[in-house]
Amino acid sequence: MRVRVDASRCVGHGMCTLAAPDIFQLSDEDGHAYVLSQDVPAVLDEAVRQAERGCPEQAIIVDAAA
Ligand code: SF4
């Protein structure tokens, strides 16, 4: 699974950083989320899915086939 954040949608709620702190962090510079690793370890798949579902802006883009 691969994941990225669409910066044009992200408004910096930070909910993703609570759901999957090992993948998502908030930038000190612009307040938007970014991913620490685009390639998600299998053990974090569900946490990333939870972040995807919980993002109010639908800014988290998951590619499950990658
Ligand atoms: S929950 Fe969505 S909008 Fe909020 S910081 Fe994370 S990616 Fe951005």
Write the layout of secondary structure elements.
Layout: E1 2-5, H1 15-19, E2 24-26, E3 33-35, H2 45-54, E4 60-63
The structure holds iron/sulfur cluster.
Whole-number count of domains: 1
Class, according to the CATH hierarchy?
Alpha Beta
- Assess the beta-strand content as a share of residues: 15-25%
Low-confidence stretches: none
The percent of residues in helical segments reads 10-25%
Task: Please summarize the sheet with the most strands.
Answer: 2 strands, antiparallel
Ends distance: 5 Å
Give the CATH architecture.
2-Layer Sandwich
Molecular shape: globular
* Oligomeric description of these chains: single chain
**Numbering strands along the chain, what is their spatial order in the largest sheet?**
1-4
Total count of helical runs of at least 4 residues: 2
- Give the beta-strand count: 4
What ligands are attached or bound here?
iron/sulfur cluster
CATH topology heading: Alpha-Beta Plaits
Helix and strand pattern: EHEEHE
Radius of gyration: 10 Å
Q: Return the structural class.
A: alpha+beta
Mean of pLDDT: 96
Features:
66 residues, Alpha-Beta Plaits, two-stranded antiparallel sheet, two-stranded antiparallel ribbon, 4 strands, 23% helix, binds iron/sulfur cluster
Task: Write up what this structure looks like.
With 66 residues, the chain is α+β, with helices and mostly antiparallel strands. It has a single domain (2-63), classed as Alpha-Beta Plaits (2-Layer Sandwich), CATH 3.30.70.20. 23% of the residues lie in helices and 21% in strands. It has helices at residues 15-19, 45-54; strands at 2-5, 24-26, 33-35, 60-63. The protein has a two-stranded antiparallel ribbon. The chain has a two-stranded antiparallel ribbon with strand order 2-3. The longest helix has 10 residues, at 45-54. The termini are close together. Bound molecules: iron/sulfur cluster.
